[in-house]
Prior knowledge:
Blueprint: E1 2-3, E2 16-19, H1 38-41, E3 43-48, E4 53-58, H2 59-63, E5 70-74, E6 79-80, E7 90-95, E8 103-110, E9 113-123, E10 128-136, H3 145-156, E11 161-164, H4 171-180, E12 186-187, H5 196-204
Parallel strand pairs: 1-10, 2-5, 6-7, 10-11, 11-12
Antiparallel strand pairs: 3-4, 4-5, 7-8, 8-9, 9-10
One zinc ion (ZN) is lined by residues 32, 34, 36, 41, 58, 60-61.
Amino acid sequence: MVDFDVERGMYGSHGAVRPAVGRGSAQSPDYCLRGHRLQIAGVTGRYSHYYRLTDITCEVCYALKDPLATWYLIDPTEQYSAEDADTMGLVLVLIPPAMRGGLGHIELWLGGVSVGDIDLRACGPCRRAVLEHVRVDEKYRRMGYGRVLVAAAVARAPGYSWSTTTMDTSLATRAFWAAVGDQVPGDIGGPPNYCTDMLRAAEHTP
Ligand SMILES: [Zn+2]
Ligand SMILES: [Zn+2]
């Protein structure tokens, strides 16, 4: 259920991104991507005009020339309709389901172009949600985009009982969920715990 190319070299030419709720100091992380405590390591926060997001630099990682020294913070709860989404920067775009339990869709847009997406079903009355598919464009993999999409999906249905569709056993899929699975408040790996509303909605979807 995840298309990730783990054979490819890490990080590429684009920056790493991480989900972080809030603004300003509320959004600031305590640790860098290498696990340095930023209060001790030293930290610089700036605004990236390219991503239109706050970026964070660990000063120890920067001094060590670590490619993960700087990363960008995106609030997974900030999701826009396709009409309202900024066509500059990195933004989350929500395409809601047509009916209760139907397939909802969240895309991650960079400069107005979708570079990754996730499918989910959520049912309010049953308080159940299912992650169905995560996809990130090849050139944007291994930078946290999938992690942001999972956080955005989970943010749509906080406190729900979550499950996922059954995963394949490929290295790529296992690598992704081994890193990101802790973000899902429920059972990952399948089988999906669909409610009757979801099953009914799936029947209505071609
Ligand atoms: Zn660091
Ligand atoms: Zn339901």
